[in-house]
Amino acid sequence: MSKIKHKIAVISGKGGVGKTLVAINLAMGLARNNRTNKVAILDADLTGPCVPKMLGLQGKKWVVDQTGYAL
Ligand SMILES: Nc1ncnc2c1ncn2[C@@H]1O[C@H](COP(=O)(O)OP(=O)(O)OP(=O)(O)O)[C@@H](O)[C@H]1O
Ligand SMILES: [Mg+2]
Fold this sequence. Notes:
By secondary structure, the protein is an all-alpha fold. The protein has one domain (about 1-70). The chain is built from two helices and no strands. It has helices spanning about 20-30, 50-55. It is globular and about 35 Å long. About 0% of the residues are buried. Adenosine-5'-triphosphate binds near residues 15, 16, 17, 19 and 20.
């Protein structure tokens, strides 16, 4: 985490209010408008299917390079 320059947390005290949707739209917007830095997203609900489902990545394998970064 120390290597990550800027971190944005999307949190709420309630479930099902749109955290994942907001986080995905935020990440996509930042990635599109930023060619210099890499943008990543981590859902604290590690076993939840929401992020891959919303990004259309369900069923795909997680591929990382030699440094551990996701491709
Ligand atoms: N602004 C919105 N308008 C309509 N539907 C929305 C909106 N934001 C989220 N939803 C829908 O509400 C549902 C819950 O959204 P989401 O999964 O993003 O919430 P969450 O807070 O991350 O939930 P969880 O606490 O389970 O992780 C999803 O089906 C999503 O498509
Ligand atoms: Mg969620």
